[in-house]
Amino acid sequence: MRVLHVEGGARLYGGALQLLYLLRGLAARGIDNHLACRTDCELAVRAQPFARVEPMSMHGDADLLLIPRLRKLIARTRPDIVHLHSRIGADVMGGVAGRLAGVPVVHTRRVDNPEPRWLAAVKYRLHDRVIAISAGIADVLRGAGVPESKLRLVRSAVDTQAYAQPCDKAYFDAQLGLNGAGSAAKAAQEAVTDAPVIGVVAQLIARKGHGVLLEALPGLVTRWPGLQVFFFGRGREEGALRAQIAALGLAQHVRLVGFRDDLDRLLPCLDLLVHPATMEGLGVSLLQAAAAAVPVIASRAGGIPEAVLDGETGLLVPPGDVAALQAAIAGLLADAAQRMRFGKAGRARMLAEFSLDAMVEGNLAVYRELLSAGCSAWKDSQG
After folding, report:
1. 8 A C-beta contact, residue 79 and residue 36
2. Its domain of life (predicted)?
3. Same-domain status, 10 and 55
4. What is the pTM of this model?
5. How far apart are CA 126 and CA 70, in angstroms?
6. Cα angle vertex 359, ends 358, 365, to 5°?
């Protein structure tokens, strides 16, 4: 079986990382993967052992010329399936190209934002199957009128083995600058023995809720003067967040450390992962934290309740509720035993329910379903 995957994102964030896992798993099962992606993306480099990478120009939702570029690629590679892994133009332009070429099209939906019914009626007509990575996303799609016959649920997964390592505090401090001479952050930590560390792993965009956490922090740093908070990720809200940090007097407590590809070594050193998103498809960082046995506090939004079991692997709070978020963080920071229980339960759940094998087999089942149903118009047309 040959599959052409299309990913329009520029960064190796959650969705692209899931695609990398999928490519690796499919290649191990003998699938011939081709990957169309941006010429300058990290995925193009990381995917080379598992796919034939086809770099091309991709310019977002208005890039109509992506259609002939993808159609030409389909004609050359002759895939059995076209699998679209992102929006940013790939979902629509890739769907049109697949339809014109007569190849069955699968689209993976990773976000839970609602779409008008008229748009969904046009857009998802281009796709033979739509894979939702959470039940919450599937509900959104149903609400937009996507027929049940097209919907399939295949949850995102986490490389549990990669995150199953103890905290290397020396590495953590060296990488995040906490052992530098004269560091204000280091001085704040050394001022007290009880200095908890919180992480947020998400793009710096409004719906991830970083600002809500910042509003909750002043009351927490009064109680824990050495508290350190790290924002892992990049995004258009960086300037606004830096201004908010300064206005709240949190410069010694909050650091924006950018995108990191060593989260498997950094997450085990966190006391908590906090994810105050107001919208979320599932939350790959929540799975990563749980795999590292780190308890999670997150919003009860989108597919997050599928990633975090409230009261079992972490705590859920209403989206945007500063007081509730502050109370949840304070409660867990004060209770090391509860943090340990949540962490152990989270890791056990990742091993049982969010394995890479289950995710790969779920996608492969969708491919086989389409081909067994005789949906490959391309193969029919080619004889």
Report:
1. no
2. Bacteria
3. yes
4. 0.81
5. 15
6. 85
Are residue 187 and residue 64 in the same domain, yes or no?
no
CA distances from 101 to 45, 66, 77, 126, 188 (A): 28, 14, 12, 12, 61
Please check whether residues 243 and 309 belong to one and the same domain.
yes
Locus of tokens 């560091």: 183
CATH number of the structural domain spanning residue 259: 3.40.50.2000
Indicate the SS3 state at residue 181: coil
Cα 217 from Cα 358, distance rounded (Å)? 38
Residues linked to residue 131 through DSSP beta bridges, in sequence order: 108, 152
Token pair in block for residue 327: 């109370």
Between β-strands 228-232 and 254-258, what pairing exists: parallel, antiparallel or unpaired?
Answer: parallel
Nearest of 164, 159, 201 to residue 344 by alpha carbon? 164
Domain that holds residue 106: 2-157+356-382
63-67: Cβ within 8 A, 24+ apart? 63/89, 63/93, 64/93, 66/90, 66/93, 66/94, 66/97, 67/93, 67/96, 67/97, 67/100
Euclidean distance between CA atoms 255 and 272, whole angstroms:
15
Each residue's pLDDT, cut to its tens digit, for the chain (383 residues) gives 999 999 988 777 778 889 999 999 999 999 999 999 998 888 999 999 999 999 998 887 788 999 999 999 999 999 999 999 977 778 899 999 999 999 999 999 998 888 888 888 889 999 999 999 999 999 999 999 999 999 999 999 999 999 999 999 999 999 998 765 345 555 555 544 468 999 999 999 999 999 999 999 999 999 999 999 999 999 999 999 999 999 999 999 999 999 998 999 999 999 999 999 999 989 999 999 999 999 999 999 999 999 999 999 999 999 999 999 999 999 999 999 999 999 999 999 999 999 999 999 999 999 999 999 875 444 443 33
Q: Which two structure tokens, joined as six digits, stand for 266?
A: 């950094």
Which 3 state secondary structure label does DSSP give 4? strand
Three-state secondary-structure class, residue 351: helix
Q: How many CB atoms lie within 10 A of CB 171?
A: 13
Distance of CA 112 to the CA centre of its chain: 12
CA triplet 178, 10, 233: central angle to 5 degrees? 25
Radius of gyration of the chain (CA): 22
